[in-house]
Structure formats: C-alpha cells, structure tokens
Amino acid sequence: MAGLSYQQIQDSLAAQPLFENKTWRLSPEPWRLTRKQIATLEQIGQACLDFYLALDNLYRRCAEGKNLLRNKELTAPWVCSYLDRGKPRRLVEHARLKRFKGIVPLVLRPDLLQTEDGFALTEMDSVPGGLGLTAFLNRLYGMSERAFAPDIVGGVGQVELDWHRCLAATTPDKENPLIAVIVSDEAAVYRPEFDYLTARLREQGLRVYARHPDDLMPMGDSLCIPVNGNPEDVDIIYRFWELFDVGNVSTAQDILRVAEDGGVVVSPPMKAYQEEKLNLALLHHPVLDDYWRENLPRRSYKALKKVVPHSWIIDPVELPPNAVLDAPWVDGKPIREWEQLAEASQKERNLIIKASGFHETAWGARSVTLGSDSSKTDWQEAIEEAVDLADETLHILQDYRKPIRLKHPVYSEDGEAVYEMEGRIRLTPYFFVEGDQAKLSACLATFCPADKKIIHGMKDAAMLPCRVVD
Asked: Taking CA atoms, which of 33, 113, 396, 421 is between 20 and 30 Å from 326?
C-alpha cells in the first residue's frame, strides 16, 4: 500500500495554521495496531471511566466521613487530606456539592507506553491536549487517495463529531447547544487545535466556538459569548485549563457560580482532585485495596492493576519507632524516611518522580525525573524537592517500565528517502464518555528515537494517527 508522499504532508501542514512553528518527523503511513491491541485499548478506556467513577465515590464518602465498605469498617479521611492539599477552599467546596456527584470528565486520555509486558499506563489526563492534532492527522492520512481511510482508528472526520456528541448529551433539552471552549493563557499553545476543531464543527452547522476566558460575559444567572456581534447564552463550557491556573482565569469565579446555579454545564467538571496523578497511587495503596475490589468491575480492576505501574505518594511524615514507609526498599531493606531513597543504587532507582498536580510543573513532563537516567546528585535533589514541597504540592514515585524498541518507516529530514527508524512509542487514545461507556474515538502515536527515555511530543519524534491491521 502506497503511503503519503513527503510533499503531500508538507503541503497539508503548511496550509494549516494549527501547525505554525511546529515540526516533527514525518512518516508515509499511520502507526499500526493489531485488532487485539485495539481490544486492549477499549478495555483500558472502560477501566479508566470505571476508575474515575469509583474515585469520585471514594472522595465523596471520605469527605462525608462515611464507611467505604459494605461488610466491614473502613474510613480514610486522609484521602481528602491528600487530594485537597494546596487547593483553594472555594474549589474544594464546589467539588463537594451534591449536584456534581458522579460527574466525571467526558474526554479521557490515558498515556500508554508499549513494553515487553504489554501497555503501561503512566498517567490519566482529564484535560488532554492533542485532540485537534489527532483529528487533523486522521483526515490527512485518511483522505489522501483514501488509502488508509477504512482502517484509521476513529475514522476520518468523525473525531470532532464524536467529541461534540458527548458534550451535547449533557443538555438533552437543547437541539443545538451553544458550546464555548475556554482556553486559558497558560494553555494557549493548544488554542489553534480548538480553533481547528470548532471550525470543522461549524461547517456542520453546529454552534461551537473557541474563546478566551475574558470573552465570557456574566449576565445574571447565565454566561454569554459574542457570536456575530451579539451576546448569546452559553449552554456548555468545555474547560481547557488545569485548575491550578484558576487564579489567573478572569471569569473562573463566574463559571463556578453559574455552574452551581445550573445555568451552564462545565466539562471537565471543576473538581481539582480528578486532575491529581496521585490517584494512581491510591489505586495501589494497601489500605484501599478492598475498596477498589468492591467498587470497580472485576474486569476493570484486573486491567488497571496490570497496566498501572506501582506508585507511591511522597508524603514526609513522622513514624513511630516500629513503622516503615509504604515505599520501595533500598539495599534490600524498607525505609523510614524518603530521603533514604537518595542512597538507592542505579538499579534500585528505576523509578520516576513527578509532581502530582495543581502546580505549573505538573504537566508536559516538566517535573519528571527518571532515577536510573539521572546522576546521584540530580536524583537526591529531586527527592529533596518533593519532600520540601509536600505541604503544598505532593509528588508521586512510580515504577519505570521501559518501552520496547520498535520500528516504523519515516522520511529523512530532507524528504528524499524513507527508512526504518528504531524508537519507542507512546499511545494516547482518546475516549469519549457516552452514558456508562467509554468509546475509543481516536489514537495518537508519538514515536520517539530509541535514545529518548521520557517520551513526549518533540521535533525528533514522529506524530502519527493509528490504523488497524490484521
């Protein structure tokens, strides 16, 4: 099967303002996934939705001081202590309101590395970027002579429609709801993606607009945006900014107020605890295992336990003399203080440290330190920083599962030749929540050179849609 030519891709990128000043390696064809891998992705997506629902219930019951189990006593007020740490009281009170019970993000994106043992789920992102890029790539690779169209994961031109449908379902009484995608200054690099998505949807006659927070106009019990020069009531806000940025969003308090009064639907909901990476550490917390077994479907429990690397919360606490930390061992022995991790051997340092959330360094791999790839000094500094910041921003420690080496055709930098590049892959599937189901609607592959240990978007990587192969 012939793929896209180098010039075809370059011309398409040049014609789309979405990609101004952005470069990556180009490939003639999408990333290949087997049907078995697709089935695994679908299972992981449903498990992620089940996890968010169980997490929401866990947080709410802990906040209310209720028992967590049916047939035996278990309370865990410390869960809320972790998840509310460093958060403004206003956000905490908003998240706990009964009207928002069971409300979870409608767009779910797990970050998956392909390892020798299958996929490793390193993060769950409820405010994910890349959706517009993936929709564009699906169109690009699917529409060119329609060579890949039948096999593109999510379909050609379908991603944006699926996204709109899951949002519009939150206002079933509205035939064509007005949706405002609010993108903050902190997240402005993603604004072109939403300009692209919303423009595609307006071509279908749908009322969807990407706007800055300052464009929202509070009017009594509603919020408006200008449409063709006239203010119109917003039915749904798609929030594209992390809640750590709430103090810099001029209309955030108005959004909170109007959402509480039922005047607008906000998705993802303004629940800061849903954006914490330490949620994955709660999945592995020994005290909570009975809770997860009881509140997750068995299939989802098994799937999550398999794909989520063991994770721990770095919380410096004073222990009684006969206690040790729930943490990795050093030199074959349990530890009592997190600082003891500094003495771990390089093999024992096969661990990741990263900020959990509600901090500007908690996204985009800004706070990530891989112990086995760091000097002992850098590793020690990362531990000390995690301990020092614990009162305001918790960090987590996570087992590092190394991605395997794979091959995929890419163009040389001048576009004159195609060769098999060896590298490592991160998959970011996008799931849209419809009722109690998580639907796989797209998948972006980031294929990085084999010498890159932390995989993320970069100029040396190939950014690809995915297709299904037998």
From this structure: 113
User: In angstroms, rounded to a whole number, what is the distance separating the alpha carbons of residues 257 and 252?
Assistant: 9
Q: Can you count the helices (H) and strands (E) in the chain?
A: 12, 18
Residue count of the chain, please give it: 470
Average pLDDT, the chain: 93
Burial 410-423 (b: 16+ CB within 10 A, else e): bbeeeeeebeebeb
Q: Are 326 and 312 in contact (CB under 8 A)?
A: yes
> Which residues have CB under 8 Å from 213's CB, separation 6+?
182, 184, 241, 249, 250, 251, 252
Angstrom distance (rounded) from CA 312 to CA 227: 48
Its sign, for the CA torsion 280, 284, 285, 289, is positive
**For residue 115, how many C-alpha atoms fall within 13 Å in the half-sphere facing its CB?**
19
Structure-model confidence comparison of residues 456 and 265, the more confident one = 265
Distance (Å, whole) CA 163 – CA 267: 12
- As a whole number, mean pLDDT of residues 229-248 equals 95
Higher pLDDT, 451 or 317: 317
Cα 303 from Cα 44, distance rounded (Å)? 7
